[in-house]
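pls design
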């Protein structure tokens, strides 16, 4: 079973959805790799069976991500049409973003032409549905985009006789202690404040294991002023809806311990129930 990428993470994760070659192999799907950082998802190549593999990894067709094509060998692109039409059939109207070498735009135009009959037949029993659209970006070496703290760049690789062929680099920054604290301090957390409280607590737990004094905590966290530790604790309490009382301090310590021991993104609702994301991306109780 593929691991799920639905749960938000401050790290970059990758799942090899397929590593097969052109001849069919039931044990190895066609070439495709899914990467995730926070809420962002990136799909590299679209080999045979990639749609089913994305679902196994926890992504609904409605949420299938932008696609990066390394080169135009058929085993790397054979299911582009399947991804394009399926996400539209389930109701996704936003353009599908496809980044690829020169020739990608022509390939997508031919795919849309091939699918045109099916699209028009389906539109007859849909309510005011536009045909699916694709935003094609034909790439060269260098930076391609920034999204959700991830910078994607392309570089040329040798894959003769196929030219050009590209590799992709994904650079990311972690939303750790400084990033989460800054969002809460500036009042920019919005509805995600409980989750950012968890990010803060997890970052502190990693840097300050055990119980130590304010001065030592400040040193380990890189704060010049030990009062910053108290302010950070205050931000966590506020995000979690806790007061500065002895009872709530015990609650905060228990939550931080749970976060540290499980290594998961946990939030607490207004009733104090601990919630984690399931395979569909919905918040469900940690303990049933």
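designed seq:
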């Amino acid at each position: 079973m593929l691991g799920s990428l639905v749960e938000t993470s401050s790290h970059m994760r990758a799942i090899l959805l397929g590593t097969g070659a052109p001849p069919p192999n039931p044990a190895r799907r066609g070439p495709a790799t899914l990467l995730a950082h926070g809420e962002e998802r990136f799909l590299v190549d679209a080999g045979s069976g990639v749609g089913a593999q994305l679902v196994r990894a926890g992504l609904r067709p409605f949420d299938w991500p932008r696609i990066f094509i390394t080169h135009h060998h058929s085993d790397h692109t054979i299911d582009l049409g399947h991804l394009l039409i399926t996400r539209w059939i389930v109701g996704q109207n936003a353009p599908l973003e496809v980044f690829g070498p020169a020739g990608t735009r022509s390939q997508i135009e031919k795919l849309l032409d091939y699918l045109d009959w099916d699209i028009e037949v389906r539109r007859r029993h849909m309510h005011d549905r536009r045909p699916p659209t694709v935003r094609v970006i034909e790439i060269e070496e260098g930076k391609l985009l920034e999204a959700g703290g991830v910078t994607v760049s392309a570089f040329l690789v040798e894959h003769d006789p196929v030219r050009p062929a590209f590799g992709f680099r994904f650079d990311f920054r972690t939303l750790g202690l400084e990033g989460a604290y800054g969002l809460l301090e500036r009042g920019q957390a919005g509805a995600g404040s409980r989750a950012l409280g968890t990010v803060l607590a997890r970052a502190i737990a990693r840097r300050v294991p055990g119980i130590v004094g304010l001065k030592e905590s400040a040193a380990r966290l890189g704060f010049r002023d030990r009062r910053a530790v108290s302010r950070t604790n205050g931000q966590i309490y506020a995000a979690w809806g806790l007061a500065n009382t002895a009872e709530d301090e015990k609650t905060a310590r228990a939550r931080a311990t749970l976060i540290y021991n499980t290594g998961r993104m946990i939030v607490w609702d207004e009733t104090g129930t601990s919630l984690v994301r399931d395979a569909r991306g919905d918040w469900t109780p940690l303990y049933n």
